[in-house]
Specification:
The complex is a heterodimer of chains A (about 425) and B (about 350). Chain A has about 425 residues and is α/β, with parallel strands linked by helices. Chain A folds into four domains: about 30 residues, no CATH class; about 70 residues, Type 1 dockerin domain; about 130 residues, Nitrogenase molybdenum iron protein domain (Rossmann fold), CATH 3.40.50.1980; about 160 residues, Rossmann fold (3-Layer(aba) Sandwich). Helix content of chain A is about 40%, strand content about 15%. A five-stranded parallel β-sheet of chain A has the order 5-4-3-6-7, with helices on both faces. In chain A, strand 3, helix 4 and strand 4 form a beta-alpha-beta unit. The longest helix of chain A has 22 residues. About 0% of the residues of chain A have low confidence. With about 350 residues, chain B is mainly alpha-helical. Chain B has one domain: Orthogonal Bundle (ABC transporter involved in vitamin B12 uptake, BtuC), CATH 1.10.3470. Chain B contains 14 helices and no strands. In chain B, helix 3 packs across helix 12, helix 4 packs antiparallel against helix 7 and helix 5 runs antiparallel to helix 11. The radius of gyration of chain B is 21 Å and the shape is globular. Classes of the chains: A alpha/beta (about 425), B mainly alpha (about 350).
Chain lengths: ~425, ~350
């Protein structure tokens, strides 16, 4: 062995020893870093830090509360069994959750109801509206879905459920939540071990029939409804579903995507952020109020929403003139219409229905009324709003770029956003 | 004619004619007053009576300084709305009055004969499914064309039925009601297939509202409705004779079938155009002619103008009431149904022993 070779061997031996020592010797990484405050997005009891994972941090938080180092007020979701206190039972429950043991966990839904749900979810049924549908793609769990209720399916956006139903792997249980066929649901429970029904709180799709929910619960099917209409609800619902379906990484990835978009909006708009006044309509016969998901969406996009009514909508019938009051003379009007992907376009009757209501509105007269698709994901709608509120600040096609990124990342299909139209100026 | 030579009976006759004319004049004046008053009803909390006066003054004299928003609200919304109320109210009432006479049935109106349901079905096709028989580029006119075409279906059906032997007016009404149910069922089916957003839109349209009034469509409606009403007025003498029965009318030289068929077609066109724009406003065609008969009797020469004035009055007052009771706006069809229903029942009870036509 020559001298050079001896040095090389020596270096390799030392490096291998260092690597072995680094991986085998317990270090500081085993000491879990407990956050100062809970995130509050993944509102599953046992998920003490409120993120989108059940892990050793949650165990550490529960133990620190038992030790008196932290309080239940700081980490309310550490109380895994919802008993009002944190004790060894909670620690054990969290450990069981980490080990994916079959169990029931408590979830705080977006209407602040505590729901008991099977964990982890293995064979879900979904009742999905246009806001929940994109989340299905993000979580990528269509392979375990056994049943679905849909009014209309978009072959692009809802491709996974669409293909599942077409191939017979997923059973269609009805056109919406309230119209779910009980016979089919009971069959799915008996033959396919359906365990949880995931649905969206929405006027059109939710399971507002307590009778059905009670019936499903008696059959052993848990029902969990969440809202997905605004940036906050969107994240929270995604985090909860992500935890229950063991798709935490998907959630984290999507949160990062959204966070970058929202940061970009703030950065580009700069001092102008929050200065353009706006009103939004999601239905032709109404304007969205402060209780609607569109209120926070328009604000996240950098708008100053002029709605001053607390409900989700306020009726705008043809001939109504209250929208012309000075206090509602917004710079911009965003008027929503549902449209499919594919070669998406807005219909003449959609445009005409808005024209006969808003043609004399300040924004319409100034060529700043836009019809937009309500079928796109929340983050994409926010991007479109931002670009069209501040056209001088954003590059032309910026929102389409965000949309295309979303499609490329989360839709398992080749689809070019620019071939369709998801927002359009309504000229005076 | 020398007053001394006039018999008591003639005196009484002329007095009754004078009374009828006065009643028509009084109701017409009330209708115009209601129309003017309705211009002052608005959802704008900041707009005062003086602001409305300024706008009206500006448009009458061409001078003055006015708020552009108030100008738009009063001149582009309230004035066409009031005028549409006048035209639609009178057309619905006249249509009802003539239909009740020629079909000799107190319940006959464009609604109970399926004409309105046909028009609604046509309009729903555009609202729900985006299907226009002829897309004119305008939403309102395209809806009206759909409504006219579909209103003709029950009209033609009634005409075909009327040519059958041994068909009584009652049978014709029953046929109309059957057609109405068929169209209503078809419209309900469309609702199931439609986008939920459009269901709300069509629901509000179905109840009936004057909110779609604009300078663009008021001319269209007026241009169709006024000639139709004049034509019906021209047939008034023959229709009055037909009240005595078809055989009697024929023996007096009235071409019963032609008058009946023409009248039904004219009413269908009139109804379709108004329904196409306002939606289904119920009870005006039923109630107004019955109240008018209390004042002027069954002679079509007086009944039609009186019904027209009364129909306008009821519709305009109901529309103003709907906007006052619920400032955010309530479809006028709700008010006409709430007011019209009990009045109609009262009329039926009071007039049960009298000849109604």
């Amino acid at each position: 062995m020559n001298k050079t070779m001896a040095i090389l061997v020596a270096v390799l031996v030392v490096a291998a020893g260092a690597v072995a020592a680094f991986t085998l010797i317990p270090g500081d990484d085993d000491k879990v870093s407990i956050p100062e405050v809970a995130e509050g997005t993944g509102t599953v009891y046992g998920n003490a830090d409120g993120n989108c994972f059940i892990d050793k941090v949650d165990v550490a938080i529960a133990e620190s509360i038992i030790n008196g180092e932290r309080t239940l007020e700081e980490f309310p979701f550490a109380d895994a069994d919802c008993s009002g206190t944190v004790d060894s039972k909670d620690v054990q429950l969290i450990k069981d959750m980490i080990n994916k043991k079959d169990m029931k966990v408590k979830v705080l839904d977006t209407q602040d109801k505590i729901i008991s749900v099977q964990y982890p979810i293995k064979n879900p049924i979904i009742l999905s509206g246009s806001n929940l549908a994109p989340l299905m793609n993000i979580l990528d769990f269509s392979d375990i879905v056994v049943g679905a209720a849909y009014n209309t399916l978009d072959p692009v956006r809802d491709y996974s459920i669409y293909n599942g139903i077409e191939s017979g792997k997923i059973t269609k249980i009805g056109v919406n939540g309230t119209a779910a066929d009980l016979d089919i649901v009971s069959e799915l429970i008996l033959k396919k071990d359906a365990d949880v029904m995931l649905c969206e709180y929405s006027g059109m799709y939710d399971l507002d029939s307590d009778v059905n929910i009670t019936q499903f619960n008696e059959w052993g099917l848990d029902v969990l409804c969440m809202e997905c209409r605004d940036p906050g609800d969107d994240m929270r619902s995604l985090a909860v579903f992500g935890i229950l379906l063991d798709r935490g990484e998907n959630v984290q990835d999507y949160m990062k995507f959204c966070d970058e978009v929202y940061k970009d909006i703030k950065k580009v708009e700069g001092d102008k952020f929050g200065t353009t006044t706006v009103l939004v309509s999601s239905l032709k016969s109404s304007l969205s109020g402060t209780g609607s998901g569109y209120y926070p969406m328009s604000i996240t996009a950098g708008g100053k929403n002029l709605a001053d009514w607390s409900g989700s909508i306020k009726s705008v019938k043809v001939g109504d003139v209250w929208i012309f009051e000075d206090k509602y003379a917004s710079d911009v009007l965003f008027l929503g219409a549902s449209s499919n992907y594919g070669l998406a376009e807005f219909t003449d009757s959609d445009i005409a229905a808005y024209e006969e209501r808003y043609t004399n509105h300040n924004a319409w007269k100034n060529d700043r009324a836009f019809i937009f698709s309500t079928s796109t994901p929340v983050v994409v709608r926010i991007a479109y709003m931002a670009e069209f509120m501040y056209p001088d600040l954003f590059e032309d096609g910026w929102a389409n770029g965000i949309h295309q990124d979303f499609v490329d990342k989360y839709f398992d299909t080749d689809y070019t956003v620019e071939e369709s139209r998801f927002i359009k100026k309504l000229s005076s | 004619m020398d007053a001394v030579s006039v018999s008591d009976m003639e005196c009484e006759y002329y007095a009754s004619i004078k009374k009828k004319k006065l009643a028509i004049l009084a109701i017409a004046i009330l209708s115009i007053i209601a129309t003017v008053c309705s211009l002052f009803v608005s959802q704008l909390s900041t707009m005062t009576i003086s602001d409305v006066m300024d706008v009206l003054g500006y448009h009458m004299t061409g001078t003055g300084d006015i708020n552009p928003v108030y100008d738009m609200v009063v001149w582009d919304y309230n004035v066409p709305r009031a005028l549409l109320g006048l035209v639609v109210g009178s057309s619905l009432a006249v249509g009802g009055a003539v239909m009740q006479s020629i079909l000799r049935n107190p319940l006959a109106t464009p609604y109970t004969t399926g004409v309105s349901a046909g028009a609604s079905m046509g309009a729903s096709l555009l609202i729900y499914l985006d299907f226009a028989i002829l897309w004119t580029g305008g939403y309102v006119s395209s809806i009206a064309i759909n409504a006219i075409v579909f209103a003709m279906i029950p009209t033609v059906a009634i005409l075909i039925v009327s040519h059958q032997k041994h068909i009584t007016p009652t049978t014709m009404i029953l046929a109309g009601i059957a057609i109405m149910y068929i169209f209503s069922a078809a419209t309900s089916l469309l609702m199931l297939l439609a986008d939920p957003e459009n269901v709300q839109e069509a629901y509000e349209w179905g109840i009936g509202s004057l909110g779609r009034a604009s300078w663009d469509n008021i001319w269209f409606v007026t241009a169709v409705v006024i000639p139709c009403m004049v034509a019906l007025l021209l047939f008034s003498k023959q229709v009055t004779i037909m009240n005595a029965g078809n055989r009697s009318a024929q023996s007096m030289g009235v071409r019963v079938k032609m008058i009946r068929n023409l009248s039904l077609v004219i009413i269908a066109v009139m109804t379709a155009v108004t329904v196409g724009i306002t939606g289904g406003i119920g009870f005006i065609g039923l109630v107004a002619p019955h109240i008018a008969r209390i004042f002027v009797g069954s002679d079509q020469k007086y009944l039609l103008p009186c019904s027209a004035a009364l129909g306008s009055l009821i519709l305009i007052v109901a529309d103003a009431a709907s906007r006052i009771i619920v400032p955010e706006g309530m479809p006028v069809g709700v008010i006409t149904a709430v007011i019209g229903g009990p009045i109609f029942v009262l009329l039926l009870i009071k007039a049960s022993k009298k000849v109604w036509f």
